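FAQ

Q: What does a record look like?
A: Structure on top, sequence underneath. For example:
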């Protein structure tokens, strides 16, 4: 069977599974809709958290980034991995013990202020919409190639699927759907990696294969060969870095602390019964995440080597079928500048004739490596699982922020549970339409868009959450001022240097403040947030005594039983 038929079969079966789970586990109350009833097991929650965390950026785009950036691309690997550890150890158990459904709910109660709650809701919406745009684009990329529709149509199909099970099942449906999606995405990621590792190096473990000698008996190490191929084409050596050290640090830090402020990941720790279950599920999720994250660099090396050897300086008339297939999507383009019929793939932009979208590397890797059609279709299903799992979690954050934190807590405190549930579903419906628009018109490739979302989370939520847990003198005036300054600064930098909306053109990287890229500027905005928060809180009244007692209580280890809602 050809790839298209295999894709229809495998993707169809996985979609049927997701929808079936959503119908089986549909939410009947706001508690089930927001936190799955609070009774999810640590194992299921660990798998669901891993799926929620490993978005299209992790599955599709991270390996693509490393493949083209080499050593420089590892900032995403370090930042996202380190960020999850930070979240699991430093924040998740304390937030779980506080006993609130959402991050704005925590901030509103901890800072005893509806103003703080409203600012937190606005920040949550900005972060979530930026993040979800990357997921919807990932869905579009997969559909455009394997179901042979254009990216826009692919985004719309993805919108319909995710809306169905997110709106029907809420967090309860999403949790068990994400367990299935984790199984699909990790199997889809590992099978081709193991396959290609054996073909290229004879080693069945991709992480070891990346650093092994080639299977051709030459004794050449794979990474040495790739360094040589890159050098021949004028690219920097794969194992060397070209980014400025301050930008590497800033991006890594922004991704780390941005992780710790991501509302759709934090809310997963409210779905278990006890604080110790939150800790256990965080540890299990880290193991599940590590399987993919340690494999991504290996896939990057395999794909980059095979790509160069397959297309560089080859006659266009004899390129393999996969090349022509990806050309039809517009994500890979060949322009014969010197009319010699050969593909010139080199570093010099004036001479280079081949443009490759970072986001296709993982999807194209099995085709480039000549793997069976069912493996190619399996990777497509895995990419969709990664994108849809995270999109669903983000939709829930958006809907709960509107229905629970705005309507229930501020504007209509007397709203019935049924009314709140209806408003949550309506909010999710509106949110998916807006997300679809940004998926069709994204401000960059998947990982870049997602990195901006992490910057926004770092700039807004992280200081408010960390100070709210560990500094009882922190008050509402400081928190609100810090969040406003942090998010405003990050938005300005993002709009100016990533989107070019202020000057109609993108300023050159030489104009970046402190030599830091937009993906790393969340670190600077976060530091500004911390400074403003601490200074303002020092010159304004301390929080009420009962709030200070709550802050002390949530850090006591003896409270590791049922969480109490304050």
């Amino acid at each position: 069977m050809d790839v298209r038929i295999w894709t229809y079969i495998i993707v169809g079966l996985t979609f049927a599974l997701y929808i079936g789970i959503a119908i089986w586990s549909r939410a009947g109350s706001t508690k089930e809709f927001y936190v799955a009833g609070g009774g999810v097991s640590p194992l299921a929650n660990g798998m669901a958290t891993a799926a929620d965390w490993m978005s299209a950026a992790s599955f599709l785009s991270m390996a693509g980034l490393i493949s083209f950036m080499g050593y420089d691309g590892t900032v995403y690997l370090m930042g996202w991995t380190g960020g999850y550890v930070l979240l699991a150890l430093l924040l998740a158990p304390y937030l779980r013990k506080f006993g609130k459904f959402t991050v704005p709910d925590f901030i509103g109660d901890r800072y005893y202020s509806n103003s703080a709650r409203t600012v937190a809701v606005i920040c949550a919406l900005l972060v979530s919409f930026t993040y979800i745009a990357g997921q919807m684009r990932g869905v579009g990329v997969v559909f455009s190639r394997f179901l042979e529709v254009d990216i826009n149509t692919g985004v719309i199909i993805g919108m319909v699927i995710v809306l169905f099970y997110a709106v029907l099942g809420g967090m309860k449906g999403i949790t068990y759907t994400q367990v299935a999606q984790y199984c699909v995405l990790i199997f889809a990621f590992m099978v081709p990696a193991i396959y290609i590792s054996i073909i290229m190096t004879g080693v069945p473990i991709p992480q070891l294969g990346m650093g092994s000698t080639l299977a051709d008996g030459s004794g050449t190490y794979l990474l040495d060969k790739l360094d040589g191929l890159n050098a021949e084409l004028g690219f920097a050596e794969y194992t060397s870095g070209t980014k400025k050290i301050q930008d590497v640090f800033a991006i890594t830090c922004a991704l780390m602390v941005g992780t710790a402020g991501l509302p759709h990941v934090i809310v997963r720790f409210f779905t278990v019964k006890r604080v110790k279950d939150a800790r256990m599920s965080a540890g299990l999720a880290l193991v599940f995440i590590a399987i993919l994250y340690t494999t991504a660099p290996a896939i990057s090396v395999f794909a980059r080597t095979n790509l160069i050897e397959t297309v560089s300086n080859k006659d266009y008339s004899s390129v393999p079928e996969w090349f022509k297939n990806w050309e039809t999507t517009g994500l890979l383009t060949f322009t014969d500048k010197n009319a010699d019929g050969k593909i010139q793939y080199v570093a010099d932009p004036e001479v280079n004739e081949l443009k490759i979208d970072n986001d296709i590397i993982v999807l194209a890797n099995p085709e480039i490596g000549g793997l069976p059609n069912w493996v190619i279709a399996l990777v497509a299903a895995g990419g969709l699982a990664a994108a849809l799992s995270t999109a669903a979690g983000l939709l829930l954050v958006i809907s709960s922020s509107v229905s629970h934190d705005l309507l229930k807590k501020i504007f209509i405190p007397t709203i019935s549970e049924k009314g709140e549930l209806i408003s949550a579903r309506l909010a999710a419906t509106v949110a998916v339409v807006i997300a679809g628009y940004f998926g069709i018109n994204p401000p960059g490739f998947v990982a870049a868009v997602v990195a901006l979302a992490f910057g926004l989370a770092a700039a807004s939520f992280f200081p408010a959450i960390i100070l709210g847990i560990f500094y009882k003198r922190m008050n509402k005036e400081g928190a609100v001022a810090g969040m406003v300054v942090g998010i405003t600064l990050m938005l300005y930098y993002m709009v100016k240097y990533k989107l070019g909306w202020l000057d109609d053109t993108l300023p050159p990287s030489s104009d970046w403040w402190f030599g830091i890229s937009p993906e790393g500027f969340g670190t600077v905005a976060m530091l500004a947030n911390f400074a403003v928060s601490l200074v303002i809180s020092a010159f304004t009244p301390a929080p009420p005594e009962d709030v200070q007692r709550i802050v002390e209580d949530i850090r006591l280890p003896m409270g590791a039983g049922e969480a109490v809602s304050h």
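Q: Is there anything notable about this one?
A: The beta strands are 332-334, 354-356.
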